[in-house]
TrEMBL record:
The keyword Ion transport does not apply. Residues 10-127 form the Response regulatory domain. Keywords: DNA-binding, Phosphoprotein. Residues 155-220 form the HTH luxR-type domain. This is Response regulator. InterPro entries: CheY-like_superfamily (IPR011006), NreC/VraR/RcsB-like_REC (IPR058245), Sig_transdc_resp-reg_C-effctor (IPR016032), Sig_transdc_resp-reg_receiver (IPR001789), Tscrpt_reg_LuxR_C (IPR000792), WalR-like (IPR039420). Signal peptide: none annotated. It comes from the Bacteria. PANTHER family: TWO-COMPONENT RESPONSE REGULATOR (PTHR43214). SMART domains: HTH_LUXR, REC. It holds the Pfam family Response_reg. The keyword DNA-binding applies.
Length: 222
């Protein structure tokens, strides 16, 4: 079967932001007939049920969700549906997020800055058996699985104390974002940002955002 004759790749979207899912679905449906969105979900439970019902070839999977995240979806789906391929699509480009979801069984990891055409290409490639990563993320995986000096940390007791949302806030804080910008980026209030920063300072026993920035940089969170 030639490229133009092949059946479209059946795709299932998993992300807790409905507007983002709608945008991705519209983009994929409008620019190509290489992929076909067959379903979507905004939580782990919805994703597990929806994937079992629609039997997609590829699942586009968010990493952080309130009820467990992408790794939990993988843990619950892969034993029952081993042929389904998972491609992480996340705002996070942190080493520990990339490594965790790949260890859980995802075939690739791309960030939400990817263009629509590049995303289609990535979906088709993982469905064909390739591993696909946004350029700077591949090095994290190579480092982790090579287990060589300087590799990205996989198990870090201090990092494990932080919740996924606290890591998101810390990452943006370390990049120089103001509290208001962090709130806008993560769709939370400034007060919630302040609460997360206070919690991170307490858990890491650090004194200010400059120490937090160095701490985050040492763990490749930036």
């Amino acid at each position: 079967m030639t490229e133009s004759q092949r059946e479209p790749v059946k795709v299932f979207l998993v992300d807790d932001h409905a507007l983002f899912r709608a945008g991705v679905r519209t983009e994929l449906d409008s620019i190509t007939d290489e992929v076909q969105v067959v379903g979507e979900a905004g939580s782990v439970a919805e994703a597990v049920a929806g994937i079992a019902r629609t039997r997609p070839q590829v699942v586009l999977l968010d990493v952080h969700m309130p009820d467990g995240g992408g790794a939990e979806v993988l843990r619950r789906v892969r034993p029952e549906l081993p042929d389904v391929v998972f491609l992480a699509l996340s705002v996070s480009d942190a080493a520990e997020d990339v490594i965790a979801v790949i260890r859980a069984g995802a075939r690739g990891y791309v960030t939400k800055t990817i263009s629509s055409k590049e995303l289609v290409r990535a979906v088709v490639r993982v469905s064909d058996g390739d591993a696909v990563f946004s350029p700077r993320l591949a090095g994290f995986v190579l480092d982790a699985f090579a287990d060589r000096p300087g590799s990205a940390p996989i198990n870090d007791p201090e990092l494990d104390l932080l919740t996924p949302r606290e890591r998101d806030v810390l990452r943006l804080l370390a990049r120089g974002y103001a509290y208001k910008e962090i709130a806008s980026e993560l769709f939370i209030s400034v007060k919630t940002v302040e609460t997360h920063v206070s919690s991170v300072l307490r858990k890491t026993q650090l004194s200010n955002r400059y120490e937090l920035s160095r701490w985050a940089s040492d763990r490749r969170l930036v």
